Input
Amino acid sequence: MVTSAKQHTNEESYISWHQRSELDKLADLPRELDDELTRLDQDFWVSSQKLKDIVERFRGELDEGLSKDGQNIPMNVSWVPSLPTGREKGTILTLDLGGTNLRLCKVVLHGDEAHGEEKSTLDQEQYKLPEELKTGDAESLWAFIAEKVETFVKDKGLDKEYSTANPMPFGFTFSYPATQERVDHAVLQTWTKGFDIKGVEGQDVAKQLRDKIEEKSLPVELVCVINDTVGAMIASAYNDPKTVIGAIFGTGCNAAYMASLSDVTKLDPSDERIAAMQDTNTSTEHQKMAINCEYGAFDNSHRVLPRTKYDRQIDADSPRPGEQAFEKLSAGLYLGEIFRLILVDLADRGLVFKDQDTKNLHESYALDTGFLSQIEEDESPGFSQTRDLFHAKLGLQPMDVEIELSRRLAELIAVRGARLCACGPAAICTKEGITAGHVAADGSVANKHPKFKRRWTKALGEVLDWKKEWGEDGDGARGPIKITSAEDGSGVGCAIIAAMEIARRNKTRGRGQ
Ligand code: BGC
Output
């Protein structure tokens, strides 16, 4: 089967010969659907020139965030002053509150005692966050977390090793925008990723968690609160010195990098916190600071991003309309929803799923990014997997044309997402003069979508005017800036930051400060 519509994304389909031959067996798209696809292709395609314009504007917003508080991209100071040496050691309890799950880990860092073995050992448990908690109140959130910490501590026998007088160091990965006055303090700026828990915005989450820990007399001491992007960068740099950026392409979308302190002009160089965090061997001029960009908020004023009517609808129906404009076009939480909204639009106009019950299709967030990945990956004869998927998730029985249309839609949405996702790191690299290194990426889209890394690399190459073949290799192995799979940021990364902070405190005490 063929679609006559000119498809910009054809070049990035990366479909196999086998899939192509299965597609050829399907019926042709009727004229009206073909026209719809042409329209959608135009709406979703982001050209090379547009990518460059986006990156240019992105750079401007990153700079604004470094120079003043309260800017659209906040460029949050994390108080992590350096990359790890790789020698950090310790046993730390880490907690990760990311989006879907709560994860607790006992992390043992072996540092330079690893002797060729793994540099860290993990003992972990994961708990599903009850849906109602995401829109509940602060008390229920912290009570749930404290209860899980208590269970973990008991189950792993940590209560035998530690006490309130001799507590276990504890690190918290809190993957939401937060203002930090210190590494163990984090005032939530706004909830993202569909969370809407009352009584946390504008509050210090470290204090709220600490209060609960004290209430329950748990034998742990909160040492640091970090963002997942900072964790990904630090964990990856522990093993890979070429790491330049930590990025998350998952439910949300964001990155962190090491800025020169002198570029963070919103900080006063005489601020005593800077002196306290500074290594005696490092002059202020060379001092660095990990910045959690929080660039999911990029272009909230809608100056440059190409929004479709489906993107507008997602924004309007979200708990925080007007926020996270960039994230809503590119992150995993939204890709399945964009796909669903297009199908709903076409179904409501009688163009697809005629005479079928579309009740389940009309349910918000009924589909996730995994649905799109599976459609793109389907190599089964006659696309039986896609048919099963539609039936299992939506109770629908797609016809050939709906199979083809869905595959094309999944592609359009994922290609746009991947191309936009390249813009953040591209802006950081061009701004910082980074011409080579590793972008350590984590998140469900980066790790689970079969074609994300190739598309991301191709787009990065277009922005940076790479030789064409550099941007076209599978996982970008030939380009000088490569996307790599990040090490475990919220477990190992968080533990390393806690260990670095403990070492810094001990040193400061030693210096008598
Ligand atoms: C949050 C960031 C986080 C990103 C990836 C965004 O919604 O605001 O703090 O890094 O998601 O998890």
